[in-house]
């Protein structure tokens, strides 16, 4: 398709071709949704003195405290280069502590401090506020989350199959 034809059709793909229109791209829909949702969290987390990634770390620890870094890394799907600075900042803020395991010096466990555990109560209203702002019925919320989880599994499996 020539540039003139492309401009006349608004960039629409010919029959059988995949579109290159921005609004037709799954990656853009995911990116825009992620940015919008993360922006919803910002003012709520500012009140707690947390960034969104720090909040995710605390969510994982509120669910299961005293975990090895490798388990936390797997739960959050982060690499060590991203997770380690997050843990250092949260430790400096007095919300968690890193401890080498006595019987295996290679293993570092992450545990909440009393301040980190107490922050959970202040964060309790956040999921409801975010859910309300999304404007999805409970069933639609659950379906969307399930679809996103399936998408993540599929893309991860595909990427691992190519490695």
TrEMBL record:
Record-linked PROSITE patterns: HTH_MARR_2
The keyword Endoplasmic reticulum belongs to this UniProt entry's keyword annotation: no
A Pfam family this chain is assigned to: Staph_reg_Sar_Rot
Keywords: Cytoplasm, DNA-binding, Transcription, Transcription regulation
InterPro entries: HTH_MarR-typ, MarR/SlyA-like, Transc_reg_Sar_Rot_HTH, WH-like_DNA-bd_sf, WH_DNA-bd_sf
Domain HTH marR-type intervals: 23-153
Protein localization: Cytoplasm
Protein name per the record: MarR family transcriptional regulator
């Amino acid at each position: 398709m020539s540039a003139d034809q492309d401009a006349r059709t608004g960039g629409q793909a010919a029959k059988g071709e995949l579109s290159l229109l921005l609004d037709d791209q799954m990656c853009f829909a995911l990116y825009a949704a992620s940015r919008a949702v993360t922006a919803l969290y910002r003012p709520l987390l500012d009140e707690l003195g947390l960034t969104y990634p720090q909040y995710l770390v605390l969510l994982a620890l509120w669910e299961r405290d005293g975990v090895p870094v490798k388990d936390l890394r797997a739960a959050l799907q982060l690499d060590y280069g991203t997770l380690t600075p997050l843990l250092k900042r949260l430790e400096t803020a007095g919300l968690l502590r890193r401890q080498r395991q006595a019987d295996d010096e290679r293993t570092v466990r992450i545990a909440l401090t009393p301040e980190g555990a107490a922050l959970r109560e202040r964060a309790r209203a956040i999921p409801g506020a975010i859910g309300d702002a999304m404007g999805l019925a409970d069933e639609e919320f659950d379906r969307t989350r399930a679809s996103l989880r399936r998408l993540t599994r599929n893309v991860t499996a595909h990427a691992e199959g190519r490695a």
